[in-house]
């Protein structure tokens, strides 16, 4: 029989420490949504998504009510659109038409994002891939609920530097086209290395080609719960600290597993994975930065931050892995600047720099995330930042990502405001030295050697 | 059996238990266990109940219990027991 203290503990996590399930994401394959015209493809996509995910939001809300835990987002990930549109889409506008259809579907089924306006180009770009990439700025500017991602490298293939160069330009253009909203388009666009096929989190979610027709992936959260738990072990040894994080991660993940199983059963769609991530929100008490402070740092970014984050990330995985039958996705602590109040504070007071964030991404998921930089940053500089982050992922055999926002018309010291879960971000200074000649080189960076590791 | 956990959190006042129990009896919800404790000066009560025989839908019962809570100034939540079992039992 349950003990009243256990019941109180769970409800305290939910009501006081912001425990929630961050997202139920239904992955849907669009691989057979083929047609001879763009309209035909759009019709099939519309039909497929509304049929599969018509009930997603309602089922999510029912589970939320029955278990008494918020499920913040209900989302959809789809087969990368460059594959779906290949052969038929001949212009940028053809791809944008598909994107608009997706946006319409997202509104109709009530999900807050569809991810998968994507291209996988880690070794090279097809004509369709390149066209899709070039269409991203317009597609994001003319839609509301679509997320885009481009995979430009992997440990096995190396880095496609032509795509990296192109992405620098695309990010600048996306910023320009959405400059009236603090370049919001870039907040829905991410560049990845070693992207997983089953990630439920935006903006990098897509339904990989290795996946089944439809699948339910769930992303858990809970930095507030971890922070609250470790506040009770102040001054204790690392062993005690690690044990506390592991136990908490286990409990958080069990809830995710339960929600995933329920959703899978009710939607009659197989369960895919649980993504064990500490995903913050701008709400006070729901911050990874705050967890780092509780571990013993004055601010995220202080010396010791990378070690503290490595410890945190590893314990979350160790605790979570036993709580679920299938773990996948990105699984790790997220460190998006704009979506985390204490990270915003750390960036604002100068404790946290882009270079320190880059080091932190070596030991956690995912990468340079939701970082606002001056609008006049050169495209080549953005490509250089992307290349650095991709190299970290490639060499360390992990997923890395860049979601960076050059806020047009604003500079260091000002703030970009995106609203909602995307939060707001102080504009951070960027190294001003040039990498033009490096980025101008054509071709690929070869895959790294897999032995002689040092 | 459809096990649900009903929790009441708030300032201790006369008649909380009576109100909740009357509602549950009227709606054919069988109470299996009751325990209570005081945490940080607040009255915490937990009921384990079975709603298998209840003619009303769980969602309606949860809403109506919450409403009773509003009327007497306490927080009443009804949740399926699975979330607690999953979190605290391996």
- Poorly predicted runs of 5 or more residues of chain A: none
Radius of gyration of chain A: 21 Å
The counted number of beta strands of chain B is 4
Largest β sheet strand count, sense and barrel closure of chain A = 11 strands, mixed
* Integer tally of domains of chain B: 1
Describe the structure.
- The complex is a heterodimer of chains A (about 450) and B (about 90).
- Chain A is built from 15 helices and 13 strands.
- Chain A is an alpha/beta fold and about 450 residues long.
- Chain A has a domain of about 170 residues: Anaerobic Ribonucleotide-triphosphate Reductase Large Chain (Alpha-Beta Barrel).
- The longest helix of chain A is centred in the middle third of the chain and has 30 residues.
- The radius of gyration of chain B is 13 Å and the shape is globular.
- The two termini of chain B are about 20 Å apart.
- The model of chain B has no long low-confidence stretch (mean pLDDT about 90).
- The interface between A and B is medium-sized, with 22 and 26 residues.
């Amino acid at each position: 029989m349950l003990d009243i203290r256990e019941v109180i503990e769970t409800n305290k996590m939910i009501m006081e420490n912001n425990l929630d399930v961050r997202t139920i994401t239904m992955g849907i394959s669009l691989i057979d949504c083929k047609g001879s015209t763009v309209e035909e493809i759009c019709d099939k996509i519309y039909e497929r998504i509304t049929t599969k995910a018509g009930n997603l939001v309602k089922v999510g809300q029912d589970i939320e009510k029955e278990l008494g835990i918020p499920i913040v987002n209900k989302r959809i990930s789809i087969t990368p659109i460059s594959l779906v549109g290949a052969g038929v889409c001949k212009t940028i506008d053809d791809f944008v038409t598909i994107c608009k259809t997706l946006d319409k579907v997202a509104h109709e089924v009530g999900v807050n994002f569809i991810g998968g306006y994507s291209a996988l180009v880690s070794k090279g770009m097809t004509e369709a891939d390149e066209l899709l990439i070039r269409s991203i700025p317009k597609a994001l500017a003319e839609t509301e609920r679509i997320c885009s991602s481009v995979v430009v490298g992997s440990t096995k293939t190396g880095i496609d530097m032509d795509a990296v160069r192109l992405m620098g330009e695309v990010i600048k253009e996306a910023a320009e086209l959405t400059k009236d909203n603090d370049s919001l388009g870039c907040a829905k666009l991410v560049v990845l290395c070693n992207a997983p096929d089953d990630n439920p989190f935006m903006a990098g979610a897509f339904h990989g080609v290795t996946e089944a027709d439809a699948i339910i992936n769930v992303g858990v959260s809970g930095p507030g719960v971890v922070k609250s738990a470790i506040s009770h072990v102040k001054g204790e040894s690392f062993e005690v600290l690690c044990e506390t994080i592991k136990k908490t991660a286990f409990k958080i993940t069990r809830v995710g597993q339960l929600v995933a199983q329920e959703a899978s059963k009710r939607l009659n769609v197989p369960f895919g994975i649980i993504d064990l991530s500490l995903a913050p929100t701008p709400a006070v008490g729901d911050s990874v930065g705050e967890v780092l402070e509780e571990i013993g740092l004055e601010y995220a970014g202080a010396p010791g931050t990378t070690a503290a984050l490595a410890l945190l990330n590893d314990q979350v995985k160790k605790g979570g892995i036993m709580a679920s039958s299938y773990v996948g996705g990105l699984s790790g602590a997220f460190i998006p600047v704009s979506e985390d109040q204490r990270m915003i504070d750390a960036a604002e007071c100068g404790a946290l720099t882009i270079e320190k964030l880059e080091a932190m991404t070596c030991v956690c998921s995912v990468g340079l995330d939701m970082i606002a930089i001056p609008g006049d940053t050169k495209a080549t500089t953005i490509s250089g930042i992307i290349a650095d982050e991709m190299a970290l992922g490639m060499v360390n055999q992990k997923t890395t990502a860049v979601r960076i926002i050059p806020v047009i018309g604003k500079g260091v010291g000002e703030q970009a405001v995106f609203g909602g879960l995307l939060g707001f971000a102080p504009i951070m200074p960027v190294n001003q030295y040039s990498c033009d000649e490096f980025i101008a080189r054509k071709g690929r960076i070869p895959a790294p050697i897999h032995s002689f590791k040092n | 059996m459809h096990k649900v956990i009903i929790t009441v959190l708030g300032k201790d006042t006369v008649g909380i238990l009576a109100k909740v129990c009357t509602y549950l009896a009227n709606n054919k919800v069988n109470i299996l266990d009751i325990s209570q404790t005081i945490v940080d000066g607040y009255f915490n009560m937990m009921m384990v109940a079975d709603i298998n025989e209840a003619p009303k839908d769980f969602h309606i019962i949860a809403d109506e219990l919450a409403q009773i809570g509003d009327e007497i100034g306490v927080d009443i939540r009804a949740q399926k027991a699975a979330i607690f079992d999953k979190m605290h039992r391996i």
